[in-house]
Amino acid sequence: MNHLIAPSILAADFANLQRDVEMLNASEADYIHVDIMDGIFVPNISFGLPVCEAIYKHAKKPLDVHLMIEKPENYIQAFHDAGAATISVHYEATNHLHRVLQQIRDFGLRAGVAINPHTNVQLLEDVITDIDLVCMMSVNPGFGGQKFIEQTYTKVRRLKEIIVDAEASTLIEIDGGVNIDNAPKLLEAGADVLVAGSFVFKSDSPIDTIKELKNVGS
Ligand code: DX5
Ligand code: ZN
């Protein structure tokens, strides 16, 4: 499978959100990654439903919503209504992961599970066929612009094995500190989707940087 690119809107200029969404529309991005932080699950607050709706209003690419919030089960309907195509909930943020995955799929959306750097991929083994996408955190969630954690490569390989053994079609998404240096190694290890915030938006030409990431390995 050709890999997919999901630029993270967290690194966009919020005073020019429409402009930045239109740039993503014109780019080779496959999804728009939307980071929702509640200040409780993670020590930072990003933005919430009205901003997600505003992004959706202008977006021509599907929204990949990453919920860094406690009790995500209470907000699935709301983020569905706000335009999410994929919703990822954190493994560490709910007591009933299986139930919330069903809830997401019942809305016709793709169900994702995000895991913190300390969370062992083995913990997903029993629900892997219920997961459309694993958002593997390669930094501690809460902030853009952090340094990539090298242990991620090993985790990707281990998770890939679990997916292949289960004959599941789960995609592996890498989130945090992704750039042009680690992208080839991540894809080689088995990653399918690369999220990139700072590397895209802080570059001189975000649209060219997205193209560069998309062309890795071809
Ligand atoms: C971190 C977020 C990431 C972040 C990635 O909590 O989940 O999606 O936006 O940003 P960079 O690519 O700058 O690490
Ligand atoms: Zn994210």
Automatic annotation (TrEMBL):
Its EC number is 5.1.3.1. Its cofactor is Co(2+); Zn(2+); Mn(2+); a divalent metal cation. It catalyses: D-ribulose 5-phosphate = D-xylulose 5-phosphate. A divalent metal cation binds at residues 33, 35, 66, 175. Binds 1 divalent metal cation per subunit. GO terms for molecular function: D-ribulose-phosphate 3-epimerase activity; metal ion binding. Substrate binds at residues 8, 66, 142-145, 175-177, 197-198. Pfam families: Ribul_P_3_epim. Coiled coil: none annotated. Keywords: Carbohydrate metabolism, Cobalt, Isomerase, Manganese, Metal-binding, Zinc. InterPro entries: Aldolase_TIM, Ribul_P_3_epim, Ribul_P_3_epim-like, RibuloseP-bd_barrel. GO terms for cellular component: cytoplasm. It is an enzyme of class 5 (isomerase). Catalyzes the reversible epimerization of D-ribulose 5-phosphate to D-xylulose 5-phosphate. This is Ribulose-phosphate 3-epimerase. It comes from Marivirga atlantica.
